[in-house]
Amino acid sequence: MEDLVPQGVPDPPRRPYPPRYFPAGRTVRRLRTTALTGILTGGVSLAAVTENLDPVAYNRAAWDREVARCNEWTRPVGPDVTARARTGDWSVVLIGYEPVSRDWFPADIKGTAVLCLASGGGQQGPVLAAAGADVTVFDNSPRQLARDEEVAARDGLAIRTVLGDMRDLSAFADGSFDLVFNPVSNVFCPDLAPVWRECFRVLRPAGLLLAGFTNPDLYIFDTEALETRAEFVVRHRIPFSTLDLPEAERLRVYGDGPIEYSHTLTGQIGGQLAAGFVLTHLVEAPHQADATARYMPGYFATRAVKPPRA
Asked: Is 148 helix (H, G, I), strand (E, B) or coil?
């Protein structure tokens, strides 16, 4: 099984170890012009569905659809990547396309118990497993997890996969991991405080949290104006959710993609601190997919430590 990408699908861009999020950091892709209401709800108005929306179930189905469409962020790494990782030549990304600095990781990754949080898709988990880490991949999408399982079978890797909501890591005992690796994904999660609390709980003392997330300020702009005319029209207050949009606009702009939540920097960085973490590093990267890249960061990545005596 040399290639897990279906035949007839264009090759993805040649970028190192792509993350599990969309390059725009927002949705599967906007401005879809097909009639989606019937697809989403079997003819029932989306407004009726979202009134009592379960975001976990909705986004699980949305990500499964993206795997079926072979979205580039659901395409697994190739055998050449895992082969190099076995020799010590490896890298993974949290934001953008620049590899995470190796000094963010333990000096020796071999034997490190790693939780790849909301990180399915056959990308980071297989690389870290091939490098010698003891890897568990946790994700809300069964089809994303299947990608990791396919790579593990193809390349002879030991990877555990667990399905669930990133706010609830009760499948794991306290102090189960040395490292939580969480690339941009909490944009699809309605609240952050339980995510950071659970990360703190499942880490051992002196354990590391490496997290990537979207710059909330990207969401102040009118998406259609930005993407069709490269115009910066300030429209939305932060925090923002795509559920805040009128039904017709949400369908037109975001299609059947996942529900998204901008969050705030208080929720992202302040939430980690409130959970007990000590922040050691912060970096930023541009949003590559639209005009904001010329003016502002699109993503932030943090490295945080659980105190040794916590």
From this structure: helix
Q: For residue 307, give the amino acid letter.
A: P
Asked if 64 and 163 touch (Cβ cutoff 8 Å), the reply is: no
Contact 189, 60 (CB under 8 A): no
pTM of the model: 0.86
Measure the CA–CA gap between 240 and 297, rounded to whole angstroms: 18
Torsion sign, CA atoms 241, 242, 243, 249: positive
Separation between Cα atoms, residue 288 and residue 284, nearest integer Å: 12
Q: Choose among 174, 167, 147, 149: nearest CA to 71.
A: 147
DSSP state of 221: B
Gap between the Cα atoms of 55 and 126, Å rounded: 28
- Tell me the per-residue pLDDT of 11-55, one tens digit each, with 9 for 90 and over: 333 222 223 334 333 334 343 333 333 334 344 444 445 567 899
DSSP string, 43-71: TS-HHHHHHT--HHHHHHHHHHHHHHTT-
Number of H helices, E strands in the chain: 11, 7
Superfamily of domain 37-305: Vaccinia Virus protein VP39 (3.40.50.150)
